[in-house]
Amino acid sequence: MNSNDRCKMPEQLRNHQGDERKVGVEIELSGLSYDELVDHASRLLEGIPELASRYVTKLETKAGTFTIELDSDPIKDLDLDDERLPQSIRDLSNHAMDVIDFAAERIVPLEIVGPPLAFTRVELIEHLVDELRELGAEGSREAIYFAFGLQLNPELPDLEPSTIVRYLQAFAALYDWLKSRHQLDISRKFTTYIEPWSSRYTDKLMAEDYAPDQASLMKDYLHFNPTRNKALDLLPLFAHLDSELLSDYVNDPRIKSRPTLHYRLPDCDIDNPRWHFSTVWNDWVVLEQIANNPEHLKELRELFRKAQTFSFRNLTHSWRETTDHWLKQHGYV
Prior knowledge:
seven-stranded antiparallel beta sheet, 16 helices, 333 residues
């Protein structure tokens, strides 16, 4: 199967304006130098690179602007040639920066940040990832201190509270299943920036009668999860919906306003020949399909609530096993 055939598509491909929905993709990796990654990506994406700042290159392509960068603000912003520094330090700056560069490219991930791509164009990322693997790109498994991720920023079909809630409920139901499939590396398992939502929040979210308006939806989430460090981060979406309300709970300059979810859970296992971008994408499509199938979502929520009660079955079967069985029974996997 070639890369154009691997990525499945959800039924809900268009937003409320009739335009095809888009997704941003962020890929963290190592194994290549910064310059090598820029050169390879420029060739593979048929783009023109332009150095925007230290360790940040903009790559103009027909699909939009990709950004290739070292994922560390202190190193990107470091300037040992600053005229405010003593001359003795500035004289050593070239040698010092060479040492810093050598170390940084082996410890700090390189990152490719894609433009918003139409869902039907994600095979471009599938091809890019496969080619970079062949060129020596490495993922989380290569060192205990690596914790590289592959993040999706899918645009929602619309921004109605009821639509957002359906997606959140589908994610809450599928979290254990998704984690078992895409959160494989031990270095990622010990990180704190991909935590599950508060169990008290998921209990509220999955209640049979949960139907909040926008403000209540935001307040409920932020009361229990006032942080970016979640496997499904809602703060960019909330910044887009109501930045003033968000600022009552979180004030973080790293939050970027956008009408998307921010799915941060998956590893980047790029050097594994059995792993592909579509490995992650197709499981997200499962979530998409359930979120837009009211009967199946209702059934899965009922199972989720039952799984929280004390019973012999719940003692002998995990929620992940129950989810896996349900998904197979309903033809999702």
